[in-house]
Design goal:
The complex is a heterodimer of chains A (342) and B (221).
Chain A lengths: L17 H8 L4 H30 L1 H34 L6 E5 L5 H12 L4 E7 L1 H12 L2 H4 L10 E6 L6 H12 L4 E5 L2 H43 L1 H9 L4 H44 L11 H26 L7
Antiparallel strand pairs in A: 1-3, 1-4, 2-3
Helix pairs in contact in A: 2-10, 3-8, 3-10, 8-10, 8-11, 10-11
Chain B lengths: L1 E9 L5 E10 L4 E5 L6 H8 L7 E6 L2 E2 L8 H5 L2 E4 L11 H11 L4 H14 L15 H13 L5 E5 L7 H16 L3 E5 L3 H6 L3 E6 L2 E7 L1
Parallel strand pairs in B: 3-8, 3-9, 6-7, 7-8
Antiparallel strand pairs in B: 1-2, 1-4, 4-5, 9-10
The chains are: A alpha+beta (342), B alpha/beta (221).
């Protein structure tokens, strides 16, 4: 496990290697060249150990695949839930109308005063946007959507007040700030009534918060599961190479040297599981996207499932590799020190 | 080279393997260590390899008091000693070349340096043509010679062997001992633990005899 076949190809001396030449030309930089060499040898060794560890896993494809699958399934659950929440959040943003406050102004207010008030409210920190709807526009709207167009012709004057549609800032849109905003608007002069469908928004926020917490809990629990799976697999690998470890220690291997292939093994297990989990999540999304499209079409909506973004994917792979490293580290710390030449 | 000063080794179960043992092996010397099983031969080698530490007394190797070597520094100390095992302890999923290269890889040698020195070591034990084979394809004597090549590939000043001929017939055993003599002739200090008295009686070297953890005879045959 500490050697690689690749070394064979490098056995022949290569007279044209750069560092060698520099050594001859610049006597003063000997030390630096030596250190560069050592760093280079060290990196080469790392690369070879990494490659060797991967080849070892691939040499027993079936049992490695089993481990990878277990890890992948454990990772797919929280990641899948995360993707689901992300989609739900996106969807709820399109329903942001629900969090809008409708402000009905006093009848006697003219359009100029109404627009001035809209500007005033829009300047508040908690407000994203204010739309002024004049009584005329409101009436047109009502005619169009209600189907009472003909009946309305019999009215002498427009009974509808002007309306300000206030959208709170969505990034800080927790219930309390929205509630406070509502009270603030109500206390303005010339406001007859302000309305907010609080319950609907409230429930949505609560469900989302619950979902987020669930994803986090699931992620933590299954993260520990992955840690244990990798730790146990690495422990078995250590046991099966006990004799080899003793020999290597007797010919002068440091603990770090003995540890290295097992740590890489953990990284490969974790990374492989992460890649498979990514594949699984995308398969599930692909599998569901057809039904979602039909459902959304039935509601006249426009919405497509989005998968894991670039950053989230990167984060998934990175954290799965890290989990692998950590799991291997735990196993190595516990078991390797017990194997001493006797 | 090796200097034991009133060394006692008592194991945790109370068994006393070495008792106030004092002896010296000079640099460039070749010495046999003999005695019945349980006389303390293995313990003595283990103390030199720092697989065990003495309960009392001083072990000094190449001028270094082994009591001063911290656990973390033990690997670096071991790289200066070549060790040959009775059952040669080769890695069976590795070629002969890779087995011999192991100590060089551990000490971080350059790849081309590794190739050169592994070939030189294999040449010395007469196995240059078999570098690509797996150890299982070799005879018992050849396997032991691979073990010896691995022990000397780092050019250690001290070569230790624990029953290196334990599993070999007399003819092969003599061959292996001749090999150790050759290394000794180029300046390597050699110490070999063995109970094959008839074999070492024919070779003219110093023989240290242990009995119940004490040195009972120190003579040249």
């Amino acid at each position: 496990m500490w050697l690689t076949k690749e070394r064979r190809g490098q056995r022949e001396p290569r007279p044209n290697r750069q560092p060698e030449r520099r050594k001859v030309e610049k006597g003063a930089s000997h030390g630096a060249v030596g250190r560069n060499y050592r760093v280079k040898n060290y990196l080469t060794h790392h690369r070879q150990v990494a490659k060797e560890s991967l080849l070892r896993l691939l040499a027993t494809p079936l049992s490695s695949l089993m481990t990878w699958l277990v890890i992948a399934i454990a990772l797919t659950l929280p990641v899948g839930l995360f993707v689901f929440l992300q989609n739900a959040q996106q969807l709820s943003q399109e329903w942001d109308d629900a969090a809008q406050i409708s402000v009905y102004l006093e009848q006697q207010l003219n359009e100029k005063q109404g627009r001035k008030m809209a500007l005033h409210v829009e300047s508040w920190e908690a407000v994203q946007q204010v739309r002024y709807i004049s009584p005329g526009e409101a009436l047109e709207d009502f005619k169009r959507s209600s189907g009472f167009g003909d009946a309305l012709q019999y009215l002498n004057e427009n009974p509808l007040p002007a309306v300000l549609v206030v959208s709170p800032r969505t990034d800080s849109a927790d219930l309390q700030t929205t509630q406070k905003l509502l009270e603030q608007i109500q206390s303005l002069p010339d406001v007859e009534q302000a309305q907010l469908d609080l319950q609907w928004v409230d429930r949505l926020f609560r469900i989302m918060a619950l979902g987020q917490r669930l994803a986090l809990t699931l992620g933590l629990l299954l993260g520990v599961a992955v840690l244990l799976v990798i730790g146990n697999t690495v422990r078995l690998a250590i046991e099966s190479r006990r004799a080899e470890i003793v020999v290597v220690k007797l010919v002068g291997a440091t603990d770090a040297f003995v540890r290295r292939p097992f740590l890489y093994m953990g990284i490969w297990y974790g990374l492989g599981g992460g890649l498979l989990a990514w594949l699984m999540v995308n398969l599930v999304i692909f599998w569901l996207s057809g039904s979602v499209a039909e459902l959304v079409a039935a509601y006249d909506g426009e919405f497509g499932l989005s998968g894991l973004g670039f950053l989230a994917t990167l984060l998934l792979w990175l954290s799965s590799a890290l989990l692998g490293l950590l799991g291997a580290w735990l196993a190595v710390g516990r078991h390797l020190s017990k194997i001493e030449p006797k | 080279m090796i200097n034991f000063e009133q060394v006692t080794k008592r194991y945790e179960d109370g068994y006393e393997a070495l008792n106030e043992l004092t002896f010296r092996v000079a640099q460039g010397e070749m010495a046999f260590l003999t005695g019945h099983s349980g006389a303390g031969k293995s313990t003595l080698l283990k103390l030199i390899m720092l697989m065990e530490r003495s309960t009392r007394g001083k072990v000094i190797v190449s001028g270094r008091d082994l009591g001063d070597i911290k656990r973390r520094k033990v690997p670096f100390y071991r790289r200066n000693i070549g060790l040959v095992f009775q059952d040669h302890q080769l890695l069976f999923d590795r070629s002969v070349f890779d087995n011999v290269a192991l100590p060089l890889i551990i000490s971080g040698a350059q790849p081309r340096e590794i190739g050169r020195r592994v070939r030189a070591a294999l040449d010395k034990v007469g196995l240059l043509s078999k570098e690509k084979l797996l150890p299982l394809a070799l005879s018992g004597g050849e396997q032991q010679r691979v073990g010896i090549a691995r022990a000397v590939v780092n050019k250690p000043a001290l070569l230790l062997a624990d029953e290196p001929t334990g599993n070999l017939d007399p003819e092969l055993s003599t061959e292996i001992m001749r090999l150790f003599e050759q290394f000794n002739q180029v300046g390597v200090t050699v110490m070999i633990a063995t109970h094959d008295l008839s074999l070492i009686a024919r070779l003219r070297h110093r023989i240290l005899t242990l009995q119940q953890g004490r040195l009972i005879s120190d003579a040249t045959s």
